[in-house]
Design brief:
It is a single chain. The protein has 628 residues and is mainly β. 6% of the residues lie in helices and 38% in strands. The chain has 3 domains: 89 residues, no CATH class; 92 residues, Elongation Factor Tu (Ef-tu), domain 3; 307 residues. A hairpin with a 4-residue loop joins β20 and β21. The radius of gyration is 26 Å and the shape is globular.
Length: 628
Amino acid sequence: MSSLHVSPGPTALVDARDEVRRRLAAGDIPAGGLVIELAGGDYPLRGAFDLDRQDAGTAAAPVTWRARAGESVRLLGGVVLHGFAAVTDAAIRARLTPEARDHIVQVDLRACGVNHFGDPVAGGLELFFGGAPMRLARWPSEGFVTITGLVGGDPVDVRGTRGDRTGKFHYDGDRPARWVEEADPWVHGYWFWDWSDQRQRVESIDPAARVIAVEPPYHNYGYRVGQWFYAYNLLCELDQPGEFYVDRQAGMLYFWPPAPLDGIEVAVSVADTLVTLDGADHVRVEGLTFEYGRGTALTVADAIDVRIESCHFRNLGGWAARVAGGRQVTVAACQIEATGGGGVYLSGGDRLCLTPAGHVVEDCHIHHYGRVNRMYQPAVQIVGVGQRVSHNHIHDAPHMALQFAGNDHILEFNDVHHVCLESNDAGAVYSGRDWTWRGTVIRYNKFWEITGFEGRGCVGVYLDDMLCGTHVHGNLFWRVTRATMIGGGRDCLFENNLYVDCTPCVHLDARAMNWASYHVGTTMKDRLDEMPVHDPVWAQRYPELLTIWTDEPAAPKGNIIRRNVCQGGDFDGVRDDARAYVDLTDNLVADDVGLAGTPPHSFTLRADSAAWALGFVAIPEEQIGPRR
């Protein structure tokens, strides 16, 4: 193995890549591979640093880009700001509250080399102070207010849940009267359902009638009384430490620093993607910090045997990493925090042939993600065939932790808590609406303190809208409102799980036979017909699909709920219309099931627990979470 040493500089990465390409083209790579060692410091990026097939190693001689041992290497997609000054413009000061005026400072972004500000909807310029994201000026500064009435004009009624499709609604109080003079006010709300948010530009405000109208197109589901929202991108609401506002026309940023500016790094995000690996096989990326990007920090496309290890992804506007295609891409032992989107997105494998991708996310700590795009931005999302998510610690997020689509995935040994904090009718683990998404195993995970927005209820493992063939085994649940749910699907196995203080522990319904029946002959049948279920590889792996269309396709057949243990809460949430179809046997439900420890720190069962007589098998809880 040989090394190439690199020092920080504006062209350092490109120069190093050119040298690596020269050596690769000349065959000048020793056995064991080549290491590009980056010295500690900052490596600014105004555009993506691209690696492609020219930069690939081999299985025996990989190419490794890594930080020098014990040194901090940051790949920065932002600009550090200098030249803050007090606000003296009388018109600007008049827009601010009296309490805020003397605390606000301003900086000319164009003078700092920042000329593109993005859009307030998402993916625009963000401000970071001392390594923490700041908040775009908003009201209320924390939390939400609610819709108090609808102007109406286009009613909508979804199974008794009523609202209106027209984006004009009433509010309480007189605060929005202050926003009439704002250049570009926006609102962000959960307008109809508790799991579907949207940011919308304000078209007009009528202070007399207390009505806000948003610009079309309106929210897809409509608007409903009692749903929650806040307003943002408002100079006049820059009234708390840590808030900022950007005058996009003037190129001026206004900011209330939460602490003195001296010696503190203040930066804005500029670049989108920071690093791309497109067809760059047998590459390693180790020990680097990715920061201040507006989009996804690292993308890997159509590459084989790539390993992203011990990296730190933080203060990003999008995802930490996205993997598309290829095989055997691993994200391991990484710290992922304060992302505007999700954590890691994995896509790969061939569903037609059921060929696995072999992508892995393991031993990562993923938390406080989904800062900007709040819903459907999980810590890990997997799409395709044969991927594994294991030994991760996931917490503090507005919506889900893990989302999967496709076949034969493994979700195991993950510690998941305090997710779905801003949503209801949502799941820490979620998938749904496809008979052919089968073979996924969810085992030996710990789910705890998952109760939804304002404690209104949430789900631990949510198999939505007729999802089938999922094995949920050996998991620990504590204080999860609805711990496990089969939403009308078939052939699911819930076995050997331990539930404490969950209400209910298991839910099963027959929705495809009633209110969701319209999906059966449309989405469900269409997706079934897209897959070669009669081909030998599919027929052998999933024989149930050969007859599903002729065997009461709407009925939740083949589900088994057995040898589970429940203490506290309620166990049986099986709906009457589904009860005839389920094998519900050998489950222990008791006020005291024989716990030796205290959840969530320990779920150990004593030797005298009645669970053992039912065939319950000890859950290896000491292995849950990152291994290093």
